[in-house]
Write a structure and sequence with these properties.
single chain, mainly alpha, UPF0193, EVG1 protein
């Protein structure tokens, strides 16, 4: 029906039907014009594929040089090492006879040991956590949601208190051991 609406000739219909029978996609370009229909001039110019010249066209040297192809980036050297650090290192070698790198390594090791020793006290952390939960519960009661969270928060507080009791027992046991080592003479039960 579309072919009839376009008033296609028999050869044009046959040309399209060949594509359909083969299962190929229909051509993007228009089918070959019949001798009966005149072809507009704009059609032949726009739809024809551009043909490449037989030999490549060369651009004149002035056109090439006018572009950015021949401009080079300026080289900007950057120091590969810290010159001030190198100066201090050389001064230390000449003044003391040794490199300060060894001292830095020792300082880093000492700092790491100090960091390991300065662990936060778990007992204090538990105290802070209990205080946070009490504050939260007070805020919820002020908002009228106290009953909703009271059971959960009180359970968490009791767990924290239990953990604090365990820590306290361990500490008191350690203190007893230290005291018995420091004062071996006497009655141990009095301690």
């Amino acid at each position: 029906a579309m072919m009839e609406e376009l008033q296609m000739t028999h050869s044009q219909k046959r040309y399209l039907m060949d594509y359909v029978k083969r299962g190929d996609a229909l051509p993007v370009q228009r089918f070959p014009p019949s001798s009966k229909q005149p072809v507009p001039a704009s059609y032949t110019e726009t739809c024809q594929p551009h043909k490449l010249p037989a030999r490549p066209l060369l651009r004149p040297a002035k056109v090439c040089q006018a572009g950015d192809a021949y401009t080079r980036e300026k080289f900007k050297p950057q120091p590969t090492r810290d010159l001030e650090k190198e100066k201090r290192r050389l001064q230390n070698i000449l003044a003391m006879g040794k490199d300060e790198v060894d001292d830095e390594v020792e300082q880093v090791l000492i700092q790491k040991k100090e960091e390991e020793v300065a662990e936060p006290d778990r007992f204090e952390e538990l105290m802070n956590e209990i205080q946070e939960r009490r504050e939260f519960l007070a805020e919820m009661e002020a908002l009228g949601q106290g009953r909703k969270y009271q059971g959960i928060v009180l359970t968490e507080i009791s767990q924290k208190l239990h953990e604090m009791e365990i820590i306290d027992k361990k500490r008191s046991e350690e203190m007893r051991k230290i005291m018995t080592k420091a004062f071996p003479v006497g009655n141990k039960s009095n301690l």
